[in-house]
Every structure is written in structure tokens, then in C-alpha cells.
């Protein structure tokens, strides 16, 4: 895959922003987000038809801006709405067990450190998500922060494989992630909770 797609990877679900979340996604893409992931978690996540409608609405917006639409974890939903790809965690379905639909789609995998890398099959994986780099409140099960030192180590281990940093990233530390070997940064709250979503997204594209 084109590693430039990872440069500004916006992640959001129905509980991650106030008001019209689809509009929030639109504003983030207008501001320059290069990839989007629907991560539907939280206390009251959407399910069934409501989730399919929500995902379909966001996918249409992504298509307008020619930005890949990725679904977190839920491969059935991804296949149903014909997403551009899926992002899996270490405890989700194994990449090798995904149905044939994903053979020509983008597949991302969360790999925190050397230990997880050693047990991960990367044969069909297009990019790695590494973190949390910094402490984060957006993901309850994120684990202990690995710091930029962890990014440097993962870049060494992964070689040239595309890698995006995630976890606790904001406008005060994102450049350190890029300087430490990440091809891009993944963000939830730093964009979704911003007063001006588009402007917030644009700031993260500054070198």
C-alpha cells in the first residue's frame, strides 16, 4: 500500500464526537485526513441495521474525498458495507482466517512490541499500527505506553513495512512520532473533540 495514506489516520465511532459524527468525519477529511477507520466501541455502541447505516453513511463521505474507509475488528460489517479494508488487534480474528473478500483489501494489524511481532503472521498485512506511544484515555484496553523509544525499536524490527503510530498523540508530540520512524499518526480525540475539526486535522499535516 501507499504509506502516504497513513500520514493522518483519523479514527472515530458514534460515541467519540458530539453532535453529528458523520459531519465530524467530513470536516476531518476536508482538513486533510488521509485515511479513516470506523471503530465502534464504547458503552452504547451501535448494532444491527443502525450500525450498517452509520457505516454506509461514513463510507460515502470517504468516497467523496477519495480516502480509504477501514473498519476496526468487525470483518462481517466490513464485508457487508464493502469497506476498503479492516484493522485487526491481537485478540481479533486471525488475518489468515479472513474471508476471500479481503485478499485485495487493506489489512492493518496492531503490533505493540517485539513480543507481539514474534507471534504475528504478517503475510497478508499491509501496515502495522504501533502503540500506545503515549498514555491515552480514548482506548480503555490500550496498555502501557511504549514511548517514542518503542517506535524506534519497532521501525528497526519492521524494516520498510508501513507503520502508523497510535495512542495519546496530540499537537505537542506528533512530530516526535514521525521523527521516530512512523509513516503517520492515528488520532481520535485530538481531532474528534476539537472545536474546529478541520483546522485541527490540518495542523497535524505540518512538518
TrEMBL record:
It catalyses: 2-[(2R,5Z)-2-carboxy-4-methylthiazol-5(2H)-ylidene]ethyl phosphate + 4-amino-2-methyl-5-(diphosphooxymethyl)pyrimidine + 2 H(+) = thiamine phosphate + CO2 + diphosphate; 4-methyl-5-(2-phosphooxyethyl)-thiazole + 4-amino-2-methyl-5-(diphosphooxymethyl)pyrimidine + H(+) = thiamine phosphate + diphosphate; 2-(2-carboxy-4-methylthiazol-5-yl)ethyl phosphate + 4-amino-2-methyl-5-(diphosphooxymethyl)pyrimidine + 2 H(+) = thiamine phosphate + CO2 + diphosphate. Pathway: Cofactor biosynthesis; thiamine diphosphate biosynthesis; thiamine phosphate from 4-amino-2-methyl-5-diphosphomethylpyrimidine and 4-methyl-5-(2-phosphoethyl)-thiazole: step 1/1. Binds 1 Mg(2+) ion per subunit. It comes from the Bacteria. It holds the Pfam family TMP-TENI. InterPro entries: Aldolase_TIM, ThiamineP_synth_sf, ThiamineP_synth_TenI, TMP_synthase. Keywords: Magnesium, Metal-binding, Thiamine biosynthesis, Transferase. Mg(2+) binds at residues 73, 92. It is an enzyme of class 2 (transferase). 4-amino-2-methyl-5-(diphosphooxymethyl)pyrimidine binds at residues 37-41, 72, 110, 139. GO terms for molecular function: thiamine-phosphate diphosphorylase activity. Residues 8-191 form the Thiamine phosphate synthase/TenI domain. 2-[(2R,5Z)-2-carboxy-4-methylthiazol-5(2H)-ylidene]ethyl phosphate binds at residues 136-138, 168, 188-189. Its cofactor is Mg(2+). CDD domains: TMP_TenI. Its EC number is 2.5.1.3. Belongs to the thiamine-phosphate synthase family. HAMAP family: TMP_synthase (MF_00097). Condenses 4-methyl-5-(beta-hydroxyethyl)thiazole monophosphate (THZ-P) and 2-methyl-4-amino-5-hydroxymethyl pyrimidine pyrophosphate (HMP-PP) to form thiamine monophosphate (TMP). NCBIfam families: thiE. This is Thiamine-phosphate synthase.
Amino acid at each position: 500500500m501507499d504509506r502516504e495514506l497513513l500520514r493522518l489516520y483519523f479514527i472515530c465511532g458514534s460515541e467519540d464526537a458530539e453532535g453529528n459524527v458523520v459531519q465530524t468525519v467530513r470536516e476531518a477529511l476536508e482538513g486533510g485526513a488521509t485515511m479513516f477507520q470506523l471503530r465502534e466501541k464504547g458503552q452504547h455502541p451501535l448494532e444491527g441495521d443502525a450500525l450498517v447505516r452509520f457505516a454506509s453513511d461514513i463510507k460515502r463521505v470517504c468516497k467523496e474525498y477519495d480516502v480509504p474507509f477501514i473498519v476496526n475488528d468487525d470483518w462481517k460489517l466490513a464485508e457487508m458495507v464493502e469497506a476498503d479494508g479492516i484493522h485487526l488487534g491481537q485478540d481479533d480474528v486471525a488475518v489468515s482466517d479472513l474471508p476471500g473478500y479481503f485478499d485485495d483489501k487493506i489489512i492493518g494489524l496492531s503490533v505493540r512490541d517485539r513480543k507481539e511481532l514474534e507471534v504475528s503472521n504478517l503475510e497478508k498485512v499491509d501496515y502495522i499500527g504501533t502503540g500506545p506511544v503515549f498514555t491515552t484515555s480514548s482506548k480503555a484496553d490500550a496498555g502501557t505506553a511504549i514511548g517514542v523509544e518503542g517506535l524506534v525499536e519497532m521501525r528497526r524490527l519492521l524494516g520498510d513495512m508501513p507503520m502508523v503510530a497510535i495512542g495519546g498523540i496530540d499537537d505537542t508530540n506528533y512530530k516526535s512520532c514521525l521523527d521516530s520512524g512512523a509513516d503517520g499518526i492515528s488520532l481520535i480525540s485530538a481531532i474528534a473533540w476539537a472545536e474546529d475539526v478541520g483546522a485541527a486535522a490540518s495542523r497535524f499535516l505540518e512538518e
